[in-house]
Amino acid sequence: MKSLRLRRLDDALYWLVYLDTFNEPKYRFRTARRLLIGSAEDGHSIPVMEKIVSGFRMASKPQTELIYLVADAVRICRLSNWWHPESGGPDYIYQSLIGERARLYNRWDHKPSTLQVEIQKAIGDANRALTLGTVMAFARVQERFGATKQAGFLLQQAVSMGHDLAQKLCTVHLSAKSALSGDNNFLCQAAWMMAGGVSQVAEKIEQVTAGESYQLLDEAKERWRNPQPIPRWCCDGVHCAGDDPRFMGCLTEMWAVCRAFQHYGRIDPHDIWLPEFMCYDGLIIYDDVTSSDGDDGSRE
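User: That's the sequence. What structure does it adopt?
Assistant: Structure tokens below.
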């Protein structure tokens, strides 16, 4: 997943070959699910998400050839991730970060009905930050309001607005609702778009041929003739043992990755991570959002 995030396709396929050595059904399912989640967690192309979810049931079965998962990884990596300006992702990450901070300091009563009203208002005000923060607040509601119910609610909003892309995102989630019961990446993107978020790659998909997929798979297998240890930059200390959290996927680190790209013009684990890449000013962000009437929280 770290390799997909950084668009290091050769590395992603190298580790995908390794994961395929675990033959039990539950492990193939987890690998296929992570690719599905990664299509939204590390991308904004809705056609890519639709393509992967359409084959998810087959890809999650151990008897399915690995080449199908290889093709999915290629599709994800062919388009820019959220840290690249052309994807529109830096705005999505920054608004998510602001919204998360605002949620932490906002005195909502955390009832599903309250949050639904708040989401409708935030979308109507085109306030991307508070829309995202309120969607994320569903995880802390007093009464259970799971991801399937959230998807149904957001789908209703998208239909009423006539927002085609948001409808597609919610539908992708509902197409694999059991596998995505603990994930909100598709839903947060839908909410962001309904509140005015724009991604230049939202409707793009690149062709992936069987021939190139087999060639890439053969190259990945060939690399296993000389196995290499997992790089330190992949070991974040949260999802696995390690001490390099730069690419683990939490919002503060995701924003730092965007800042690193702005600084270096690339994302390379060997680049020095500067202190100014990090964002610790949550209270300042929150005051900036809430004190500005109708502001979408885009200022630093």
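DSSP finds 15 helices and no strands in the chain.
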